Amino acid sequence: MTRVVISVGGSVLVPTLDTHRLVEWADALKILAKAGHQIFAVVGGGGEARRYISVCRGIGLDEASSDEFGILITRINAKLLIAALGEYAYPCVAESYLDAKKFALTRRIVIMGGVTPGQTTDAVAACLAEETCSSMMINMTAIDGIYSADPRKDPEAVKYGTLGTQGLIDLIVREKLCAGSNMVFDLVAAKIIERSGIPLIVIDGRDPSLVCRVLLGGEFAGTIVGDKIVTLPI
Ligand code: UTP
């Protein structure tokens, strides 16, 4: 059995309420659970979180209070994924790392959202991977790996096949952290990955079946982040 934390970007799970991929994601996670893996999925806020945060700013709310709205939306998305998973998932959203560890004793898939302002669900996923001694963290968002620059803005951007943790941190510090930030990975998360030594894999979350290729064998095109020669512990 492999214990794995998957950070599922809200931007790929529920980009909008009309264009969600809840069923595709539930199907992929069920395949992994049936194969005997203990799965923790940390769900992001997606487009709805950004829309609420934009309203918060419009009415003059500070960034941390706007983050609290983002957290509420991540938990609503988490609840939707639990509903799509049915009996495969523990029926409550984990609101703390302790909750997540307790829920995992049932061997069901554990679903979590955000926990605290000033970070994103990538940081939650990295902490959870550390606390649960997971073999790896998989980050699945609306991009197919880590690039030297934002490929939507810079045609010269190149994708990394592998990257050291310091290289990842250097890329992130160029960006700015604010509520609803569009950074590919957050700095807190990168620092936790660095100190824990847990390998991080970044793959395209618009195709949920790719997570099965990582964990069940097969080729995948993404970025592997780590400081050792990374062989996947599966
Ligand atoms: P995320 O940024 O993690 O979700 O949370 P996302 O945007 O859906 O993720 P990607 O881009 O697809 O990967 C949404 C917002 O919720 C707040 C932040 O404002 C964040 O931008 N949040 C989330 C927190 O403040 N703390 C948390 O622990 C998690």
List the helices and strands and how they pair.
Blueprint: E1 3-8, H1 10-13, H2 22-34, E2 38-43, H3 46-58, H4 63-85, H5 97-104, E3 110-112, H6 121-131, E4 136-141, E5 162-163, H7 165-173, H8 187-196, E6 200-204, H9 210-216, E7 223-225
Parallel strand pairs: 1-2, 1-4, 2-3, 4-6, 5-7
Antiparallel strand pairs: 6-7
Helix pairs in contact: 2-4, 2-9, 3-4, 6-8, 7-8
Bound molecules: uridine 5'-triphosphate (UTP).
Uridine 5'-triphosphate binds next to helix 1, helix 3, helix 4 and helix 6.
Strand arrangement, largest sheet? 3-2-1-4-6-7-5
Mean pLDDT: 92
Which architecture would the CATH scheme give at its second level? 3-Layer(aba) Sandwich
Number of strands: 7
Give the uncertain stretches in residue-range form. Answer: none
The fraction of residues assigned to DSSP E strands is: 5-15%
Structural class: alpha/beta
* Count of individual helical segments: 9
Tell me the name of the CATH homologous superfamily: Acetylglutamate kinase-like
Number of domains: 1
CATH topology: Carbamate kinase
Helix content: 40-55%
Oligomer: single chain
Give a summary of the structure in a few sentences.
With about 230 residues, the chain is of the alpha/beta class. It has one domain: Acetylglutamate kinase-like (Carbamate kinase).
What does this structure look like?
With about 230 residues, this protein is of the alpha/beta class. The protein has a single domain (about 5-225), classed as 3-Layer(aba) Sandwich (Carbamate kinase), CATH 3.40.1160. It has 9 helices and 7 strands; from the N terminus they run E-H-H-E-H-H-H-E-H-E-E-H-H-E-H-E. It has helices spanning about 10-15, 20-35, 45-60, 65-85, 95-105, 120-130, 165-175, 185-195, 210-215, and strands at about 5-10, 40-45, 110, 135-140, 160-165, 200-205, 225. The protein has a 7-stranded mixed β-sheet, with helices on both faces. Helix 6 packs parallel to helix 8 (about 185-195). The radius of gyration is 16 Å and the shape is globular. The mean pLDDT is about 90. The structure holds uridine 5'-triphosphate (UTP). Uridine 5'-triphosphate (UTP) binds next to helix 1, helix 3, helix 4 and helix 6.
